[in-house]
């Protein structure tokens, strides 16, 4: 990937995720930009806005117009709101940078898991979100961010060990429930 391609990807990522500017650490913010840029380049993607949220669930619920970027943004804003609410009454040591980076990257593996709406070998053999950990590691973001990515879903056996991971996990559950609620009267059915 040449410098111009890298710049174009980074611009696309920054436009898709304006929450990036809230990450205070330049190195962490750059790492998140690099991870998304790398994922886009490796999968031949130029547009993030057309990526589906989660094709199998969308097919089952007949929700074709749900997209990944709004979901990631909902999770990021939800996790941040939870952190702000909890720190109003409790003396919690929450790294907002870790929280934001983890939330912004929690579903990055979906770029590798699906080709359009069809599952890839990564989805079939590894499942969600294991490959996201590899992307985070390859970008040098460290185990704290990888842990948030790995523990954000019940599809792994890894429970959140940090408050940042727990907040992203809960925000992801709520954001996914909000999507499912459009098609279900009883969320236990989906």
Query: Based on the structure given, which CATH architecture is correct?
Result: Orthogonal Bundle
CATH superfamily: Hypothetical protein af1432
What share of the residues does DSSP label as strand, in percent?
under 5%
Secondary structure: number of strands: 2
Taking the sheet with the most strands, its summary is:
2 strands, antiparallel
Q: Percentage of helical residues? A: 55-70%
How many domains would you count in the coordinates? 1
- Biggest sheet strand order reads 1-2
If you average the pLDDT, what whole number results?
94
Terminal CA distance: 41 Å
Q: Provide the CATH top-level class.
A: Mainly Alpha
Query: Unreliable segments (pLDDT under 50, ≥5 consecutive)?
Result: none
Rg from Cα:
16 Å
Q: Characterize the overall form.
A: globular
CATH T-level topology: Hypothetical protein af1432
Order of SSEs, N→C?
A: HHHHHHEEHHHH
What does this molecule look like?
There is one protein chain. The protein has 190 residues and is mostly helical. It has a single domain (3-189), classed as Hypothetical protein af1432 (Orthogonal Bundle), CATH 1.10.3210.10. It is built from 10 helices and 2 strands, in the order H-H-H-H-H-H-E-E-H-H-H-H. The chain has helices spanning 3-16, 26-42, 55-61, 68-89, 96-105, 110-113, 121-125, 130-138, 143-151, 163-180; strands spanning 114-115, 118-119. A two-stranded antiparallel ribbon has the order 1-2. It is globular and about 45 Å long. The termini are far apart. The mean pLDDT is 94.
């Amino acid at each position: 990937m040449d410098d111009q391609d890298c710049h174009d990807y980074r611009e696309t990522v920054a436009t898709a995720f304006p929450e990036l500017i809230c990450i205070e650490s330049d190195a962490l913010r750059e790492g998140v930009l690099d991870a998304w840029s790398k994922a886009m380049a490796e999968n031949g993607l130029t547009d993030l806005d057309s990526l589906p949220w989660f094709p199998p669930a969308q097919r089952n619920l007949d929700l074709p117009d749900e997209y990944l970027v709004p979901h990631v943004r909902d999770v990021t804003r939800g996790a941040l709101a939870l952190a702000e609410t909890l720190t109003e009454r409790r003396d919690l040591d929450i790294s907002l940078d870790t929280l934001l980076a983890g939330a912004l990257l929690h579903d990055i593996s979906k770029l590798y898991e699906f080709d359009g709406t069809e599952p890839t070998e990564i989805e079939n053999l590894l499942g969600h979100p294991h490959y996201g950990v590899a992307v985070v590691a390859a970008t040098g973001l460290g185990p704290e961010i990888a842990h948030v990515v790995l523990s954000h879903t019940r599809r792994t056996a890894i429970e959140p060990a940090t408050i940042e991971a727990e907040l992203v996990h809960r925000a992801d559950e709520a954001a996914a429930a909000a999507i499912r609620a459009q098609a279900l009267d009883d969320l236990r059915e989906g």
